[in-house]
Amino acid sequence: MGDPVPVGECVARVTPAPVRDPGTGFDLVVRSRRAVLPGGERPAAVGVRDGVIAAVLPYDAPATALAEVDLGGVLLLPGLVDTHVHVNEPGRTAWEGFATATRAAAAGGVTTIVDMPLNSLPPTVDVESLAVKRAAATGKCAVDVGFWGGAVPGNAGGLRALREAGVFGFKCFLSPSGVPEFPHLDDAGLRAALREAAAFDGLVLVHAEDPALLSEPAGPSYPEFLASRPGAAERRAVERVIAAARQTGARAHILHVSAAACLEPLEAARRDGVRITAETCPHYLTLTAAQVRGPEFKCCPPIRDDGNRDELWQGLAAGVLDCVVSDHSPATPDLKVPDFAAAWGGISSLQLGLPAVWTEARERGYRPDRVVDWMSARPAALAGLVAKGAIAAGRDADLVAFDAGAEFTVDAARLRHRNPVTPYHGRTLAGTVVATWLRGRAVTDDDPPFGELLCPT
């Protein structure tokens, strides 16, 4: 356990893994009076052997182990799964990279990320570019890493080969992506990608904003930028995806829903049996347009008003929105110019997603198990990461000690991602990650990275 994956290879994590008699001893036992398990929160002792959870026992059960940790009243969570991360390496490694992104992930309780096919150079749109991406990641990852492929004009015929080479699905845009090497799809291109993916039950992820309803901002202010990307553009694009998914029978997933106007068509489509899911992000659940101070808050689609945020929480609680993932999309500080029309759009929050969401969720009366469902179990299910997302026998021993009552003030300069830019700077958040274990091994700054490169089962 712990050796870097050779260049060009990936590991399919499967469950349930073979589990020997739990009475024969463990490599590690972690005890907590507040373990968040699939059936809810309760006291438990988690026994780990060979990187896998071998048993979940009563908190005070006797157990023989090489090492034991008792967290007392500190929460024990399954490692979070973040299926929306822009690592940007190779090509734009000055923006972010595998070493820095995965250290930030581990510090934030995230033990698995799935990397987006842009903004790296080359983008991950064919088998050859996937090999380049894997080579760039090898030996640098502090957590487990999978990869999405890209669906762009003209590559629908290569999606099956890309899936067979090891991507978990395919991202596309319905509006300009912001980088010329990753063009967006029109309706015909979207249907072609969905039709091809449906042939092998692949998943297509969609950045859903309709370009016909977008405009150039009238000026440099945030209200002018917000007006240029209305919620109606999201809703119309979501309706286009629903129509295409209904016609092709494909699985589609709507990325980073920011507009509550999308909830009604999503709910109706799911009632009709359309195979569609959707996500939102910590910044849409915790920030509002009135709080925007500078370009570090800029993202596409944009952060909207407080009433819209309340509706997103309602949609999440009702299951219309499936999961919460970061859309960590960093850039160098010089690209965050003080002009919302010209600044690079992207939020850096990989390390802060859990405390940000927990801070708001706690205020709204949600328990830790709901947050775990949104940020671990459901993202794992979305990507088909069957060994991740729960503290259960046979799953990977990806564990997080989380002190839900502690508070801290965010200092961007102390975060692990490459550039000290985040809208959460100076904000007081609840909940600190005390320790992170990846496959039963503590992730620390003192040890070389031992994350694996993942491929679908």
UniProtKB/TrEMBL annotation:
GO terms for cellular component: cytoplasm. It is an enzyme of class 3 (hydrolase). Pathway: Nitrogen metabolism; (S)-allantoin degradation; allantoate from (S)-allantoin: step 1/1. GO terms for molecular function: allantoinase activity; cobalt ion binding; zinc ion binding. Its cofactor is Zn(2+). Belongs to the metallo-dependent hydrolases superfamily. Allantoinase family. This is allantoinase. It comes from Sphaerisporangium rufum.
